[in-house]
Amino acid sequence: QTDEDFVQQINEFKALPALYRHALNELENKIDVIKTEWAIRDGFSPIEHVKCRIKEPKSILQKMQRKGHKFSLENMEQHIHDIAGMRIVCAFVKDIYRLVDHLSSREDMRVLEIKDYIAHPKQNGYQSLHVIVAVPLVLLDGTRWVKAEIQLRTLAMDFWASMEHILYYKFDKQLPAHVAAELKDAARAADELDQKMLRLRREILELSEGDTAGSGA
Ligand code: 0O2
């Protein structure tokens, strides 16, 4: 490796956080447009809130070690999908699938992978839908497709995952069986809450449709 190669690698490495930040900004803008359109069309947006973050270098390194990859720029870009991360919290599960269908149909991003932990929760009870996308970033040298991970959750799933993240996630020892079972139980409770809210929404919608029909509108 020549000195020039080395300097180029350092420069590429220095440019990375800015690249991911810009890609995330572009993605955030697209979601913002969807949110506004939904609100205008339906009177409310099913997207409750959106949070973005760029993964800390230390956390990237730890994840690479966890996955058994030697550190290099190529390995990092190939194996770490969530350097740019976005979390979208929706009111209802069906809104999550509606949003993913829409994202899959867009020409200004590529859906690379979908991991459905809602249909197939993780062993500990974790539920979310993860979508790995690539977003085009127009640079001086041409277009570069930058990867980002979008995590979609309901409010109840987000509550569970945030608490679990604070309490246990990355806890490197085996959890006692009764603690793991209670944690899973809490995930089930969150799921039941989601379903109850959906049933209530249906009921309220039917009531308001009945009112409209009754008023002759
Ligand atoms: P952090 O600190 O939240 O960023 P793979 O796709 O299999 O190569 P990856 O990326 O680990 O590997 O896959 P996965 O399962 O899609 O997990 C990505 C992210 O989802 C995690 O990032 C967490 O943010 C979240 N996540 C996954 N499993 C759990 C879980 O059991 N509990 C909670 N609270 N969050 C989870 P990081 O980098 O691991 O962590």
Summarize the structure.
This protein has 217 residues and is of the alpha+beta class.
Question: Layout of SSEs?
Answer:
Layout: H1 3-42, E1 47-54, H2 57-66, H3 73-79, E2 84-90, H4 93-105, E3 110-116, E4 129-139, E5 142-154, H5 155-167, H6 177-214
Parallel strand pairs: 2-5
Antiparallel strand pairs: 1-2, 3-4, 4-5
Bound molecules: ligand 0O2.
Ligand 0O2 binds at residues 55, 59, 63, 81-82, 115, 122, 124, 126, 130, 161, 164-165, 169.
Low-confidence stretches: none
| Major β-sheet strand ordering | 1-2-5-4-3
**Overall mean confidence score, pLDDT:** 91
> Structural class of the secondary structure composition?
alpha+beta
Question: Can you count the helices?
Answer: 6
Q: CATH superfamily, please?
A: Beta Polymerase, domain 2
Say how many strands there are. 5
Ligand types = ligand 0O2
Q: Helical residue percent?
A: 55-70%
3D shape: flat
Number of domains: 1
Protein name: GTP pyrophosphokinase
Organism: Paenibacillus donghaensis
Pfam families: RelA_SpoT (PF04607)
Keywords: Coiled coil, Kinase, Transferase
